[in-house]
Amino acid sequence: MEKTRLPLHHCHNRHSFSISSKPGFSLVPHLLVFISELLFTFLWVLHQAYRWRPITRTVYPDRLPGDVKFPPIDVFICTADPSKEPPLGVMNTVISAMALDYPPDKLAVYLSDDGGSYVTLHAVREAWKFSKWWLPFCRKYELKTRCPGAYFSAEESRDDRFISCSEFLAEEKEIEKKYNEFKESLEKNSVNASSSVSRDHAPIIESTQAKEMSILVYVAREKRPSRPHYFKAGALNALIRVSAVISNAPYILVLDCDHYCNDPTSVRQAMCYYLDPEISPKLAFVQFHQKFHNISRHDLYDSRLNYYWRRWLGFDGLGGPSVSGCNLYLKREALYGTKNIKNDIDLNHLKKSFGSSNELIRSISKNYKPHLSKDRKLTDAQAKEVERLASCDYDGRSEWGKEASTMKVQSRKKMRQGENYALLLGRWALGLMQISLSKYCALLYGRGRMSTLHSMCYAALSFDPIYVVPFYVLAIVPQICLVSGIPLYPKVSDPFFIVFAFVFLASQLKHVQEVMSYGDSLMSSLYELRMWMMKSASSYLYASLGAVLDKIGLHTAHFTLTNKAGDDEQATLYQEGIYDFQASPVLIAPICSLYILNVVSFVVGMARIVQTTSGSEMLVQAFIPLFGVIVNYQVFEGMGLRKDRGRISASVSFLSAVIAIFILYFGSLVFIY
């Protein structure tokens, strides 16, 4: 059942087009600004597709059939390095998945350890021991927060019904004691975690099961230095094959290792779509939002990602959103692309697609059920077959993963992520740009496969990093012209000034209206604008350069594992609403350089305006750097006012000043001569 909402218009139209034929006219800056306006217009048009048919959805889990009729669910979680992805956080994700509100005999949790680390394997064993205490406690008291780390770190996790219950409090105290012992065991075994990571090892599979417990399977696929492993994609492929002969659930929940299931009923909500005979045949996956844990009231870094989730409302109304990488319940059949496979199909054809494993090919059938014993333990033959499916060369002998359905549906936000949100999302932006420059560009590849509006939604998402071009032009060109005395915009007394003022104010107010109509505060619109500017200045810059160089063969893009390890001082700064500038100077210097350039151009420009009688024609250009300086006041604080460890270092400030002066000097020479 769906409800139609009024469109939420997020306007990125920051126009400033002008043509001048006055004395002092310079072609280069006018041409650059004109090109920037064309790019802004192009991106603005693409974003209108999101506003065509935004919808929200409501589910009714209480109307589902009994647990007996529920289909099995497999949960996939991937980790790679315990020194960057602390085992405690990963195990909290595993335990929260095991604690989902679902029949335990129909739930299997798989952890892929791409580092083959004994630290992670030990943590899995300890998590299994603790879960024997934790899961019965969750079910007995119907806990809503079933991630133990989140539960014991927040008082509001408790249910008001049991606050005064002595039995509950006694059990909770005992469970907390067990959890602390669990933490200590993991911390003690995590010393020198980085040295435990292996890139050259045979497959390791360990399956654990017990009555009233879901299956927990540890998978370390084979890794050899001479064989490509395709990072997380390869890990997920291995999990799909391994799970096919152990549990073969028709639906798969994919989680990142630093996520936890915020709502244990999310699986039942997903089943509201999959058990609906009208909508289920059209679905490939049900996508849940990801949200960040411990978001401060300031949300400096736009960690709730509402900028993207507002888009998803329109995405959903046009055929479904894109895969967000995790937090989705995926239909195995859709991933295999086997919906229309005939019973008499040639076995060799299937082996070409799925590899040489007869057991894997048999699992494609809807009627296939793994032949596990009553205690759900693997036989020696099954264990050998599973290891074969986790070998490093299995992918290379098949056409695995080339066919997949593209029909989707979106659901409500039910997943949360750790609060250590990266300031600049370079890896995401690089991936988006690589898609835009490939044959899978939505505007080209989407033709004939989806509606025009739907392909525009995909294109708007993948083309986001292109904002770097108009952003840099409007952050540099009008400022250089202001210092050089070259007018780009109408005088305040000119009737066309009203057009410029209206477009600017309308776009900003529309953004504010959109943010607030989504339920966020006025300050959230400022934080979103800041993040857009910071991403455009740094992550979009390097992502666009990296993607272009990769496309022409001058540079190879590399996957970098995100460090999920926490930092107490960073957390304190974040909760106090203070920006942390401890990132690499390569990322911070562009932001600071543009800020210094805008400060200098504003000061020099205002001095020029005050000293000349015709200064009114430069007022609009003086407002542009002033706007950037005010919006990004946090950069000024970081460079000049703060003394804490999260400030911008003096060396970075000096380097940025040199870069800003260089741009102003040589830019003035180019524009004048």
Automatic annotation (TrEMBL):
The cross-references to InterPro entries, in alphabetical order and at most eight, read: Cellulose_synth (IPR005150), Nucleotide-diphossugar_trans (IPR029044)
Q: What is its main location?
A: membrane
Keyword check for Transferase, yes or no.
Answer: yes
Presence of keyword Oxidoreductase: no
Q: Where are the transmembrane segments?
A: 27-46, 421-446, 466-489, 496-512, 586-606, 618-636, 648-672
Q: What are the protein's UniProt keywords?
A: Cell wall biogenesis/degradation, Glycosyltransferase, Membrane, Transferase, Transmembrane, Transmembrane helix
Query: Residues that bind Mn(2+), according to the entry?
Result: K232, D256
- Domain of life (superkingdom): Eukaryota
Q: Which residues bind UDP-alpha-D-glucose?
A: K84, E85, D114
- Quote the protein name from its UniProt record: Cellulose synthase-like protein G1
Q: What is the lineage of its organism?
A: Eukaryota, Viridiplantae, Streptophyta, Embryophyta, Tracheophyta
